Every structure is written in C-alpha cells, then in structure tokens.
Amino acid sequence: AVASTTAVFKALSVDDQLAVLWYAYTEMGRSITPAATGAARLQLAEGLLNQIQQMSHAEQLEVMRDLAAQRNSQVSRAYGIFSVNTKLAFWYELSELMVKGLVIPVPAGYQISRDGAQVLETLKELDFGQQITVLRKVVADMGVDPLAD
Ligand code: 45D
C-alpha cells in the first residue's frame, strides 16, 4: 500500500502534488507535534525558510513548484542537501507559515483534481506510520541533489 500510494502520488501533476501535501498537512497537523520535527532540523532549514518568506507570493509558489518538479534552481539545490527528516520538517514549517499568512495560501474554494482526491483518500486509509513513510519517500525525491551531475 505504501509503494503504490507513493507511485501514484509521484505520477500526479506538480500542482496536485502540492495540493495533496497541503491537505495531508491539514489532516495530520494535530498528530505531528512541532517538538517531534526537531528544532535542530529546522535550524538547518532556517536560512532557506527565511529566504522564502522574503519572496512575493508568486515566487513562493514558483519555488515550491520547482521543488516538486525537481527543477534545478537555487532553492532546489539548497533543499537537496537536507536529510530526509529535515526535508519533512521543511515542508511542515512551510505549511505552518501558510497558516500564519507568511506564505502563499491555497486559493479559497480550491478544487483538488479527481486524481489528487483519490491519492488523498488512499493516504488517509493508511496508518500514521505508513503515512509518514509515504511522505518521506515523496519529499526525499523533491529538489535537486547538487552533488549529482
Ligand atoms: O494558485 O524529524 C496550488 C517525524 C494551486 C519525527 C496552489 C517527522 C494553484 C521525525 C498549487 C494548490 C516523523 C514526526 C496555489 C519529522 C495555486 C522528524 C498552492 C515528521 C497557490 C520531520 C499550493 C514530519 C501550495 C511530518 C502553496 C510527517 C501548497 C511532516 C503547499 C509532514 C503545500 C509535513 C505544503 C507535511 C505542504 C507538509 C507546504 C505533510 C506541506 C506539507
């Protein structure tokens, strides 16, 4: 179930991937304690998160699309050196910044696609540990590894 959910997620369009991550966060939010994401991990991502907060909403959306699409950009390369847990903590923090109004929100009344809704449903049927495993696999591949040629 983990492998198929991950594969179907990765086949989604970039915007659907961002939307599913967002809705996963809104559903899981209460189960993820900020303490668990680790202050030390966020410290590594802090520079990048600060940089993103300085950007316009359009630029913020662009860097998130670049990450999901594995497009080579400065942000994608900076992200690429994070550990998987730091990558998860980074996305978690971006969601928190969205809630605080510091990062572009998902438009009010946004309609997720049928494919996206299906992946979300599948994800919801997994237990918490499996959900984390899917999320880890998904965010691990985002961005660009600056050490690969
Ligand atoms: O206009 O270290 C659209 C533990 C449409 C412990 C859009 C853990 C068009 C160890 C694209 C929709 C395992 C607990 C706009 C860590 C349009 C540890 C915008 C786990 C504007 C870290 C879309 C942590 C946007 C976990 C802006 C489980 C979408 C973390 C943005 C989970 C989506 C984190 C974002 C999750 C989603 C974060 C930022 C699920 C982030 C999700």
Write the layout of secondary structure elements.
Blueprint lengths: L1 H9 L3 H15 L5 H4 L1 H16 L2 H13 L4 H7 L3 H16 L14 H12 L2 H13 L9
Helix pairs in contact: 1-9, 2-5, 2-8, 4-7, 7-9
The chain binds beta,beta-carotene-4,4'-dione.
Beta,beta-carotene-4,4'-dione binds next to helix 2, helix 3, helix 5, helix 7 and helix 9.
Approximate shape: globular
**N-to-C terminal Cα separation, in Å?**
33 Å
Q: Biggest β-sheet, characterized?
A: none
User: Average pLDDT across residues?
Assistant: 92
Bound molecules: beta,beta-carotene-4,4'-dione
Q: What is the strand content?
A: under 5%
Report the total helices. 9
Q: Can you count the beta strands? A: 0
Query: Low-confidence segments, ≥5 residues, pLDDT <50?
Result: none
What is the succession of H and E elements?
A: HHHHHHHHH
Classify the helix fraction into a percent range.
over 70%
Radius of gyration: 14 Å
Give the class from helix and strand content and strand pairing: mainly alpha
Q: Describe it for me?
A:
The chain has 149 residues and is mainly α. Helix content is 70%, strand content 0%. The chain contains nine helices and no strands. The longest helix has 16 residues, at 39-54. The model has no long low-confidence stretch (mean pLDDT 92). Beta,beta-carotene-4,4'-dione binds next to α2, α3, α5, α7 and α9.
Keywords:
149 residues; 9 helices; 70% helix; binds beta,beta-carotene-4,4'-dione; mainly alpha; 0% strand
Q: What's a quick, concise take on this entry?
A:
With 149 residues, the protein is an all-alpha fold. The chain is 70% helix and 0% strand.
